[in-house]
Amino acid sequence: MCVTQYSAGIALYPKEITLEAFSIIITQMLGLSLGISYDDPKKCHCSGTICIMNPEAMQSSGVKTFSNCSLRDFEKFISNMGAKCLQNKPQMQRLPAAICGNGKVESGEICDCGTEEQCGPASCCNPKTCVLNQGSQCDSGLCCQDCKFLSAGSECRPIAHPDCDLPEFCNGSSGACDPDITIHNGRVCKSDFICYDGECHDRDARCESIFGKGSKNAPFACYEEIQSHGDRFGNCGRERGNYKMCTWNKLVCGRLVCTYPFRSPFRQDNVAVIYAYVRDVVCITLDYSLHGSVRDPMVVRNGSVCDVGRVCINGECVESRIPIGEFSNCSEKCNGNGVCTSKLNCHCSEGFQPPNCQSSGRETSVLFEKPGLIMERTFWKAEKNRWLLGFYIALPVLIITTVIAISWNRLKKRFTKEEESLSSESEGSSQTYTTRSISESSSYTDTVRSKSESSAQTYTSRSKSQESTQT
């Protein structure tokens, strides 16, 4: 119980066992952590049918108690040094009650803008109750404007450097800007430098920003001349109130030294200046005479290149693979279509989707390490909107197509019926014509026959007449 390496346990709750059986498992685990071992059923006894520390206890139901063996084991445990942490009762401290109007958001408060005078009439927070005024969604934060959340996708933190940092956006449901996410440490920037904590640590650019255009990072000889003194101008930090002298391999990781190509001296209020002329180069550095708790602006920043394949980290020149080692595997999982972020997620190139930058898509990042990642949530929301848009476009088209198909079907059936009707009428008229023809033909035949017969009779009568005359 009191040994940190062993004072933990894991119990799985499978669906096959009952809650009562699972409670026995938990109790036995707690017993083991208190020095109580499993019972030997032949030697250990209790008032119940079966004891708690019996290996088969979870298979029986009913009330169970610890055995005489368990009580003996626990007595030995608390009498030894192993239970010392149980006797060390901590001094409980009560949290002070929240005070509305002190400018600090405390337990039970949603906001606290201070006194009524400090809050002012346009405050989003009620200074008397420390809750938001009616209609207000927020009272502070980069994503809070006029007491309302900025819309999702509004940029709330611009990038510090285009090669090393990523912008942050509001999620539309909070007044706070999301945590600062950067591109992984060690990425090459400006060809010769590397990214560290979202910035490209270019010493030449720093010198130019301090002393003016034309000033650059000083050569090693200048660092050797100034940093080796171990005074307020050249040192590698402080130790017990005294300046630390830089060893040879740390000279360029102490304080920044620049070249000074100008003829007029450098002037700035409340700043001490030191010059050194080394190998035809005028070197310069400053001392701001700051208190020990204030960071010296001339300190060489982490990630500054100090040698080939080496960078400054906490005043030491170390191999660059050391600070970027943890990001190497992350970069591989981005499949060459993105870069790794400081949260070990992929920021995908345009046209690829997170998390592995393999499939195509419009969204580019998984930036936030929270349940339901915000950028992922935004991505799926956009994806959902695209599906809805497609659905709303396709639905009317489908309805129109269906109506046209049904109408065409009806017209087709109608035309078919008309064709069949016309065909029937045509066949009927044809049959009538044939019947008439046959009738006319038979009539004509009968007429011919009667004429023939008549002429035959006439001829016969004539013949008979002639014969009688001759006689």
Automatic annotation (TrEMBL):
Its main location: membrane. One of its GO terms (molecular function) is metalloendopeptidase activity. It is a single-pass membrane protein. GO terms for cellular component: plasma membrane. The chain crosses the membrane at residues 387-408. Residues 419-471 are annotated as: Disordered. Keywords: Disulfide bond, EGF-like domain, Membrane, Transmembrane, Transmembrane helix. This is ADAM metallopeptidase domain 32. It comes from Rousettus aegyptiacus.
